Amino acid sequence: QVQLVQSGAEVRKPGASVKISCTASGYSFTSYHVHWMRQAPGQGLEWMGIIHPSGGNTNYAQKFRGRVTMTRDTSTRTLYMELSSLGSEDTAVYYCAKDSGSFSGDCWGPGTLVTVSS
Amino acid sequence: QSALTQPASVSGSPGQSITISCTGTLSDIGSYNYVSWYQQYPGKAPKLMIYDVSKRPSGVSNRFSGSKSGNTASLTISGLQAEDEADYYCSSYTTSNTYVFGNGTQVTVL
């Protein structure tokens, strides 16, 4: 079955960077885009960007451009999302989600909690 | 890109029907039939309920239906059940080749 497994919770100090992984299984890895979203405590979902595992093409939400980098390793079927210059407002659960092929996320990872605190 | 506008909360009694609206602009909902809806329980990852405005993924109950008119999309839950109590988010593809979510609606089953 389709499954996305994400790396464990992270704690960072303000100004630092964090790199989260998302390992995919159960489908053709290079055929579907993968989205990254986040959800701050008690808040709604926020779309961060998208990557196509085949060529590594990316598109980021304007808010995160210059601060986010999405990459992939096709040999390990793993996607990565790195966010730099962290502030307390970046404390959130970060999700990866496989695109359905029709502009929606049909399988989501369990989420990775990132806490930014001094 | 501003978030799509959803009501903060909607409630209904078991067996009733409720509708959640999701209002965007010509830059998102108004330009594409790529509206999706997600259900999220506390502490859990979202689950896709509707895509392409009105299509249901395999395994999603036919009590869930979607529609769109102009810049506003809607999710209707018919025959409301206790298990439908959750947060619901809409999402749309945009003219900037990005995506935007709604601010979320908490559904309460009375």
What does this protein structure show overall?
- Chain A has strands at residues 3-6, 10-12, 18-25, 34-39, 45-51, 58-60, 68-73, 78-83, 92-99, 105-108, 112-116.
- In chain A, the strands form two sheets. In chain A, strands 2, 4, 5, 6, 9, 10 and 11 form a seven-stranded mixed sheet that branches. In chain A, strands 1-3-8-7 form a four-stranded antiparallel sheet, with no helix packed on it.
- Chain A has no helices and eleven strands.
- Chain A has 118 residues and is mainly β.
- With 110 residues, chain B is mainly β.
- Chain B is built from no helices and nine strands.
- In chain B, the strands form two sheets. In chain B, strands 1, 3, 4, 7, 8 and 9 form a six-stranded mixed sheet that branches. In chain B, strands 2-6-5 form a three-stranded antiparallel sheet, with no helix packed on it.
- In chain B, β3 (35-40) and β4 form a beta hairpin.
- Chain B starts with 8 loop residues before the first strand and ends with a strand.
- The relative contact order of chain B is 0.34.
- The model of chain B has no long low-confidence stretch (mean pLDDT 97).
- The A-B interface holds A 35, 37, 44-47, 49-50, 59-62, 95, 97, 100, 102-106, 108-111 and B 1, 3, 32, 34, 36, 38, 40, 45-48, 51-52, 55, 57, 89, 91, 93, 96-104.
Oligomerization: heterodimer
Unreliable stretches covering 5 or more consecutive residues of chain B: none
* Counted beta strands of chain B: 9
Rg of chain B, please? 13 Å
Beta-strand fraction estimate of chain A: over 45%
* Chain-averaged pLDDT of chain A: 97
Separation of the first and last Cα atoms of chain A: 40 Å
* Helix/strand/pairing category of chain B: mainly beta
Topology as H/E string of chain A? EEEEEEEEEEE
Mean pLDDT of chain B: 97
**Helicity of chain A, in percent?**
under 10%
Global shape of chain B: globular
The main sheet of chain B comes to: 6 strands, mixed
Number of strands of chain A: 11
